[in-house]
Amino acid sequence: MTVLFGIFLLTLMVITALAIVHTRHLFVAVILTGIFSLLMAANFFLLDAADVALTEAAIGAGISTVLFLGALALTGEHERASTSSRLLALSVVAVTTLIVIYATFDKPRFGDPLAPVHQHVSPWYLEKTSEAIDIPNVVTAVLASFRGYDTLGEVFVVFTAGIGVLFLFGARPPQNPGSPGKITAKPGQGLRHYLIPRIVGRLLIPFILLFGLYVQFHGDYGPGGGFQAGAIIAAAVILYALLEGEAQALRVMPHKLLIVLMAGGALLYGGVGVASLMLGGNFLDYSVLAADPVVGQHRGILLIEAGVGITVTGVLLSVFHAFASRGKN
Amino acid sequence: MAVLLDIASWALLSIGGAFVFIGGVGALRMPNLYTRIHAASLTDTMGAVLVIVGVMLQAGVSLAAIKLAAILLFLLLTSPTASNALASAALLAGLRPGDTVATHEEQSE
Prior knowledge:
The structure holds 2 protein chains of 2 kinds. By secondary structure, chain A is mainly alpha-helical. Chain A has helices at about 1-20, 25-45, 50-75, 85-105, 115-120, 120-135, 140-145, 150-170, 195-215, 225-245, 245-250, 255-280, 295-329. Chain A is globular, with a radius of gyration of 22 Å. Chain B contains 4 helices and no strands.
């Protein structure tokens, strides 16, 4: 049954991907990209990868779509007709597809317990999580503790991406940027003139924030963690910005605060590593953070997940504001 | 009792599925945007409500049922708002409810 659902979802994804390539209307393409991510999230969930599914749904289907729409408001809705040869592109894609299909013949069957991925370090992680870290969610244990270096790298990638966007958009916009697309209301005012979404949004934003905190701190026990929580909290603030206007959102969370969040989260993560060095352990070895190594692991994971969440929130909001403020003047 | 619950949940899931199907057909077949929104909103109000209540009956009295109830409440608040916002945006963009605009052609040009 799982295989059947998987094939169904993957077929839908192929159809969506073809539609994205086919359409010339960029707005349609953005919405289709959101659908693609949602299908991917369902597929991840089917494969029991609930953590990844949550991330994909929050970032891929949610925030990326909003950021793409923000970018579209700055450019235009129609793709320019391509002048380069399509034959070359088509042949490259065809050859790559054939190679990938050929490679799948060597893959183990779906769910095969003898697959190489289940023979390598996975059994060791599953065995050691309960005795060394003692949290139910092995994914969080692997992400935050066993492979803490990788996650530190990811946080710095997110941080660097945020800095890059701020550099690109932080430059003074040209004085006369032309018409910024069709905007029906006064720009910067959000949806103040329109009551129904405002009231429903106001009702929901506290609960979205609360859910974000739940995902953040429940990551040890169920699917969740800093990346997902950061995306959810950023989504709540973006919703606020869409409803009440960007200026109001900046009054709540000013640029300076966002930059402090961006850097502070990464700093917190690195600081936990340095603290464990100072206490006589290895870099990012949380066992030395408390008298009992298991409690130390819990503390370390809590702190670095908080760092991840803070950085992701700061970066996503900075990127959103960079796009939104660019269109205004 | 368990059999009764199963039958009730089966009926709810089937009717909910039927609403989702009708909504899908309507979204494809209706002549203009507003009627299509009307059809599509059927999917995420009646369809979603019936399916979730059907699944809640399967879950019994548990944490899963409470989570499903929370999702149901969230959907009941957001889906009609989304439909309303979509229709309102179309009206602001100048699309009159009487017009039969073939949006398919716009997409496939």
